[in-house]
Inverse folding.
């Protein structure tokens, strides 16, 4: 990872945004030092905490990637705390809580064992484990995204994290394990992934106002959504799609981004799968 991330982070969290991030991180640190460390690096003494701290310290690039990931996570928390408090989430069976339970970020390198989702390697890319409410990221993913998927922008990188946070939001409101009668596991997965894209868009909507996101940044995120769409990754059998087509992913991201309303992200309310 080159200096792009620094420039990117500085641009994304420009004058106003930097202040927002600093206030958030600084404020949280002042109030409860152990919990912010726990939130950013995993539980002290847990299987991944030493690993997380080491990974972030191993190189300057990793340190930047860790800082960037933390700043993005803080920004998503800002948005979701407000949306949950305002009762703006779609409901699945029961009313969503008013208080947003923050996920924990685990930074790992090479491989990691999760608390209930098995073992994973860097090849998995960033992911969320609903069993332990943790987001896992290997800093080398930013490189992969930049080189292999040709989506090098900082907002694109942030979007991928915001998508994983979207899965956490789904876990909280109950849509992550929602059953749809008569649909295959893959079809339900597409609904779930498109909702996570839309929820990432909702974050982008709010972040755009707070962090001065430009049209270029938006293009980059859409390019990332496109690049990680099932068809762009080379899957051609539509019945095996688990993330949705690039076109669908862009459409649902835009819906969240344009409206800023999580209730518009109810992919499970779309009756016919072909209408997604
Ligand atoms: Zn996903």
């Amino acid at each position: 990872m080159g200096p792009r991330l620094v420039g990117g982070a500085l641009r994304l969290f420009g004058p106003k945004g930097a202040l927002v991030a600093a206030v958030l991180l600084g404020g949280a640190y002042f109030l409860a030092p152990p919990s912010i460390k726990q939130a950013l690096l995993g539980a002290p003494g847990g299987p991944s905490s030493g690993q997380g701290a080491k990974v972030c310290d191993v190189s300057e690039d990793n340190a930047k990637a860790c800082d960037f990931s933390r700043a993005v996570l803080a920004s998503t928390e800002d948005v979701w705390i407000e949306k949950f408090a305002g009762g703006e989430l779609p409901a699945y069976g029961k009313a969503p809580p008013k208080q947003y339970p923050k996920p924990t970020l685990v930074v790992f390198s090479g491989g990691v064992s999760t608390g209930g989702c098995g073992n994973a390697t860097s090849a998995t890319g960033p992911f969320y484990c609903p069993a332990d409410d943790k987001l896992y990221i290997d800093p080398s993913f930013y490189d992969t995204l930049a080189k292999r998927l040709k989506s090098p922008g900082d907002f694109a990188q942030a979007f991928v994290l915001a998508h994983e946070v979207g899965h956490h939001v789904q876990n909280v409101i109950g849509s992550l394990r929602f059953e749809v009668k008569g649909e295959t596991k893959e079809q339900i997965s597409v609904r779930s992934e498109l909702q996570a894209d839309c929820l990432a868009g909702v974050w982008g909507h709010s972040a755009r106002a707070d962090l001065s996101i430009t049209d270029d940044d938006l293009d980059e995120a859409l390019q990332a959504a496109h690049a990680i769409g099932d068809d762009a990754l080379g899957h051609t059998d539509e019945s095996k799609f688990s993330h949705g087509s690039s076109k669908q992913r862009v459409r649902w991201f835009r819906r969240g981004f344009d409206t800023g309303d999580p209730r518009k992200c109810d992919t499970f309310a779309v009756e016919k799968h072909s209408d997604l």
Notes: The first helix runs from residue 4 to 12.
